[in-house]
Amino acid sequence: MTRARSSAAFARAKQLIPGGVNSPARAFGGVGGEPIFFERGEGAYLYDLDGNRYIDYIGSWGPLILGHRHPAVVAAIETALHKGTTYGAPTEAESELAELIIEAVPSIERVRLVSSGTEATMSAIRLARGYTGRDVIVKFAGNYHGHVDSLLVSAGSSAATLGVPNSPGVTAGTTKDTLSLAYNDVAALWQAFAEHGARIAGVIFEPVVGNMGLVIPSPEFLSALRELTVKHGALLICDEVMSGFRVAYGGAQSLLGIKPDITTLGKIVGGGLPVGAYGGRAEILDNVLPAGKVFQAGTLSGNPLATAAGIATLKVLRDENPYPKLERLGARLEAGLREAAKAAGVESCTARVGSMLTLFFQSGPVVDWNSAAKSRTDRFAKYFWNLIDRGIYMPCSQYEALFVSAAHTEADIDATIAAAHEACCNLPA
Ligand SMILES: *Cc1c(COP(=O)(O)O)cnc(C)c1O
To answer: pLDDT tens for residues 314-365?
Structure first.
């Protein structure tokens, strides 16, 4: 398999773009080597510049739950395109997408559309602070909420991969009102509220963590989150940018029985185009300008092409309900990947919720960032490249979840498992 054209494209990009990429998760920093440049996607497959085909388990890091170029999504974008690309004025499509979100997620009564997940979380914490009149935000190590200054403390995802938990350029002043705790640590949460309860505006968390590899919250942790925030008058902000419409149509909160005050969305809600959203109880959301005084704006917010793609995607998810299929394929892949590692005598454990899955190169259990960080990333790197050479495109970091899409077939899953058996054979001792 040659990747000469990718290599040339990367050499050029490096001269023009920092590190040759427009987002660090793409740079293969956690596995070494050069990123692959793509020409097109089709269903469950990606095609690189050299014409190699890969089974895609990234789906643009989550948005493409229907696979690449789903006909309904393409048609919706084309229809919108013929009318105009942006007006900077309201359209009915924005209400249609808002209505779909509100119907899907019971804790959301009002929702504001933005253009990325980062914007959604940034706006959500501003709203929590504006609403409560308090400053402190609690977050959890290894949870990623986008590149918001005050949330770049012990951030997961590419920040974790690169070992840069706190970015240069983020001032101590910005992060002094951020408390970072260990995920699933109920005692630490109690202690934080005992010490700082009256100053805490909100707690932001990933209800199913995808950004330190897949990590599942304990029921005790979830009930402590709700109980303590209510008791101390803080808001619970559920960051469902990744899990929303992914682990269930109503998001992780519907699966786990959580009722947050504010929910952030992104990725799937834009159907592969840039959309983010934050929503919650009307009484809270009506504090956002111009209904209220908390400032938040966006030139391209509610963009017609992006809302069209989002609406089309949500309607397919609602009407065709691919979630049982995603569960079946996810379970098959999980069992197969684990068996492949076991057959080769390689220590591993898996975590999965529906179509989100991580194979950790360690015995586990993985419950927080410290336990996730015990993984054998050297083994992961070799495994990753072994799979690439066999036409399987997995996330390029141990600390990212993989995504199965509705476009994958059982044959794709089985081909992936067969490749994984070979990929486990020559890992570092
Ligand atoms: C991807 C992600 C974000 C950031 O979204 P962007 O669109 O990349 O800004 C925020 N929170 C979570 C949980 C994410 O997975």
So the answer is: 999 999 999 999 999 999 999 999 999 999 999 999 999 999 999 999 999 9
The reply to whether 277 falls in a domain is: yes
Residues 119 and 54 in one domain: no
| Same domain? 308 vs 338 | no
Q: Does the CA dihedral 332-333-334-338 come out positive or negative?
A: positive
358 shares a domain with 209: no
Q: Is the CB of 213 under 6 A from ligand 1?
A: no
- Pocket probe for ligand 1: among 58, 65, 145, 204, the residue whose CB has the most ligand atoms within 8 Å is 145
In this prediction, residue 160 carries a pLDDT of 47
323: annotated active-site residue: no
267 is catalytic: yes
Which of these is catalytic: 54, 131, 144, 249? Answer: 144
Ligand 1 centre distance from Cα of residue 249 (Å) = 18
Residue 429 lies in a domain: no
206 lines ligand 1 (CB under 6 A): yes
Rounded Cα distance between 28 and 25, Å, is: 7
- Nearest-CA residue for ligand 1 atom 6 is 117
Domain with 159, as residue range(s), is: 71-320
pLDDT tens column, 57-102: 999 999 999 999 999 999 999 999 999 999 999 999 999 999 999 9
Query: Is 401 a pocket residue for ligand 1 (Cβ < 6 Å)?
Result: no
Number of domains in the chain: 2
139 classed as catalytic: no
| 298 lies in the same domain as 344 | no
In tens, the pLDDT along 233-243 reads: 999 999 999 99
Per-residue pLDDT tens over the stretch 152-200: 887 665 554 444 446 888 888 888 899 999 999 999 999 999 999 999 9
Q: Is the pLDDT of residue 407 over 90?
A: yes
> What's the burial of 358, exposed, middle or buried (CB within 10 Å: 0-12/13-18/19+)?
buried
Our answer on whether the CB atom of 269 is closer than 6 Å to any ligand 1 atom is no
Q: Which of 361, 421, 359 is nearest to 390 (CA)?
A: 421
Query: What CA–CA distance (Å, rounded) separates 181 from 187?
Result: 10
Whole-number Å distance, alpha carbon 422 to ligand 1 midpoint, is 33
